[in-house]
User: Fold this.
Amino acid sequence: MRRTGTILTALILAVLTISQATCQARDYSLQAVKITANAPVEITMPTSQEVKDPMYTTAAGEWKKLKVVKGKDGLSFSLPGDAIGSSLVLLAKPAWLTLPDTEPPVIEAVSVAGKAAQLVEGEVNVGHLDVTPASIMITAADKLNPIHPRETKVLLNGQLPDSFGGALKLQQSADGKHADLVITPGTLPPDKYTLRVEVADATPARNSTVALVIFNTAPLLRDGGFEELDDDGKLKYWSFGSWHSSEATKYKIELAKGEGRTGNALRFTGTSGRLNMVVGQPVDLLPGTTYVLSGYSKGDCNGGYASLIGKAVGDAKAQYDNTSSCRQADDWTPFSWEITPAENNKNYMIYLRSTSIGSVYFDDVTLSVKE
Ligand SMILES: [Ca+2]
Ligand SMILES: [Ca+2]
Assistant:
């Protein structure tokens, strides 16, 4: 190679890097060389270099045929003027590679624990699950090129599945253009999980697509018994508030320690003024599914009830549903309210609340899918 030492070094380094990144399982290896040059450059290689259908990318990213000539010093080529800047050179185009290809693979199907799930804009949230799904299967296809096994990557909450004792298995069709990815998540503590799957084709550009599969194995409602406190002695999962207070508003929202049906309870005490006491937490609900919010209440007024509030998606209306009220009772009395998150809503919140003068207690509150 005649030009300059720096170009020679850059060229060799690039060849090495890409060769090492080739796949062991299937031979979708490429010797693509990235050349960055601001002026016309002629590159000469030993005659032992394999050359077959050589191609290069223009600065605009278009693949074109490259002319390689045999001279007395070896094989050589000059990058044409439209490649000035940055160009990818492929000296030996493998038979399996189809160019140009700017399209990433398409995710054709997703199933979670054997149930089909629909991706919308690259994302599917299957909501609450009682147990970690035994497997998550993703079917991907690329129109023109094989899917690259080594460039197909899976992360669960940002970590490799094997860090949870899980695994990824990839099965490809004979031409490599179809792939089934089977992810076994392993042993996961109850929590909300996002599985990020990136599938790339085996072109030099590694066109890739990303799908997110979200599931939640944490209880639908956290700490409905009001027992889990943080280091400051505050409830871990619930937030307290008062809406639309007036100057005369006087109220108390407290953790009634040892006054629960079991352990602690939640107590609202309304004294005066405009009262709208709320204690809420975010809940991962699926639109259109009916849930049952049940628990126990008591108090010297009828003011206790619950609300389901959902944020609107797009032009949809935000959801704001109130349950009926629990009755005044000296002893713990069960309540059970059905709630249905509306379509085209997200970021649901459940609020236990009171708008009355007097006291209302809640304890042992649970949320479950209606059987
Ligand atoms: Ca493609
Ligand atoms: Ca309790």
In short: Residues 5-20 form the longest helix (16 residues). The radius of gyration is 31 Å. DSSP finds one helix and 26 strands in the chain. Residues 225-227, 260, 262-265, 363-364 surround calcium ion (ligand 2) (CB under 6 Å).
